[in-house]
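Q: What residues go here?
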């Protein structure tokens, strides 16, 4: 059982430690034209924001008792700053979106309330409706602290026209499977022969998140994990880390993929038809479809001993309120459950719906190429839990700063792996600032 001692001073110190100073959001229960106002904060913009707005409208229309009112804040540190400070001040919204990887950093400071599993189950939302990796990631200290809307893994988009020309599509028009690093590199060379640019596009310069997503996929495919115990030493399998980085070096040979490329140029190379495969997040799928590319999509193949796909999830959380309104809290459960049931539309943006009844529906099965990589939901790996990891944190950028020169120069990865471990050990040796009493561990 997770134990926290909550008071205003602790709220404020925990929030400041996680994200630094920021604006304090203000929310209050109010009466709307059709029902009570349910405040909902999220960080979704662009096409995702438009899709979410449509889903909110649908849910509101179906329930006369409440009107969910969205507040959209800037992605990354600005969002997490405001959310933490709102919780610290006891003026948080009824519900908010967080990346699942960030939740462990907010729990020890008492910034989130756990979900009532029985109440959720009465709305048809529970363990049976989720893949095991997503459900497990939703827990901290044995309590359910997030309810996932989706999983957005790091995948491959592929140009079907170029792949057909290279003869690497199967009878169903999908990319042929590869099962070893050597087979995958051979595939890249076959594709380079029919591409004006490179066989594959991977942008990594200046982007720690890009480097980390591919690295951690390959690392975990070797049947190992990375653990970051507070007050201890980082548990990193050095040999597996070196193997992953050496494969990435082979990928960046100037033929399979550009030796030095940033994310924007990699996307442009694929979008203009000059490469056959793009390593990217699922969120780029709609962009390529709009470009008119006959695009397919697949999870990064299992090249080592077991399947693993790096991902994160947009998840619903209950920010801590000093005096939560019981009726609004019940309405929040209704809102979230109904929105989950409508998340087929969310899948159109490339995300894998986390709610299994949607994945198993006929409507989702007809959604291509999204349904082609839905099985990745059974093999997801998230950032190792710690208060300093997760999307929008410095953890991934620190990793990138450590290994970028290794990828650029082809030098021995082992010193970089050891340097990264040393950085992590230094952070872990310090008291967890989100838990002043030192009682919590993931």
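A:
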């Amino acid at each position: 059982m997770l134990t926290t001692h909550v008071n205003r001073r602790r709220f404020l110190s925990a929030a400041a430690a996680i994200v630094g100073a920021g604006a304090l959001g203000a929310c209050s229960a109010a009466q709307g034209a059709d029902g009570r106002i349910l405040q909902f904060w999220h960080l979704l913009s662009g096409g995702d924001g438009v899709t979410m707005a449509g889903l909110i409208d649908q849910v509101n229309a179906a329930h006369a008792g409440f009107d969910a009112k969205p507040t959209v804040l800037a992605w990354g540190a600005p969002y997490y700053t405001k959310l933490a400070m709102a919780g610290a001040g006891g003026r948080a919204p009824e519900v908010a979106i967080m990346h699942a990887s960030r939740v462990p950093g907010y729990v020890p400071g008492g910034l989130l309330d756990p979900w009532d599993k029985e109440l959720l189950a009465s709305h048809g939302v529970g363990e049976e409706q989720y893949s095991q990796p997503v459900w497990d990631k939703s827990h901290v200290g044995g309590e359910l602290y997030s309810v996932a809307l989706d999983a957005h893994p790091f995948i491959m988009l592929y140009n079907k026209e170029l792949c057909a020309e290279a003869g690497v599509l199967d009878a169903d028009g999908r990319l042929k499977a590869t099962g070893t690093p050597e087979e995958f590199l051979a595939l890249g060379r076959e594709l380079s022969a029919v591409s004006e640019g490179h066989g594959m596009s991977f942008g990594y310069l200046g982007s720690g998140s890009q480097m980390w997503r591919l690295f951690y996929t390959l690392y975990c495919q070797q049947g190992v994990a990375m653990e970051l115990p507070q007050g201890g030493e980082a548990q990193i399998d050095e040999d597996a880390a070196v193997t992953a980085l050496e494969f990435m070096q082979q990928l960046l040979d100037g033929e399979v993929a550009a030796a030095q490329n940033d994310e924007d140029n990699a996307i442009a190379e694929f979008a203009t038809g000059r490469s056959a495969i793009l390593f990217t997040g699922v969120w780029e799928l709609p962009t390529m479809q709009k470009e008119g590319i006959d695009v397919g999509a697949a999870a990064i193949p299992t090249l080592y001993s077991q399947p693993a796909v790096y991902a994160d999830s947009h998840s619903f959380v209950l920010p801590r309120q000093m005096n939560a309104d019981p009726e609004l809290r019940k309405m929040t459960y209704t809102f979230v459950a109904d929105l989950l049931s409508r998340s087929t539309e969310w899948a159109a943006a490339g995300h894998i719906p986390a709610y299994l009844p949607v994945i198993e529906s006929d409507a989702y099965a007809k959604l291509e190429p999204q349904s082609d990589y839905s099985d990745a939901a059974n093999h997801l790996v998230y950032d190792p839990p710690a208060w300093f990891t997760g999307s929008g944190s410095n953890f991934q950028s620190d990793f990138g700063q450590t290994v970028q020169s290794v990828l650029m120069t082809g030098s021995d990865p082992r010193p970089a792996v050891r340097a990264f471990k040393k950085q992590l050990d230094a952070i872990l040796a310090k008291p967890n600032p989100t838990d002043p009493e030192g009682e919590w561990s993931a």
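A: Context that may help when evaluating the design: DSSP finds 18 helices and 15 strands in the chain. The chain has two domains: 8-149+313-342, 154-310+384-429.
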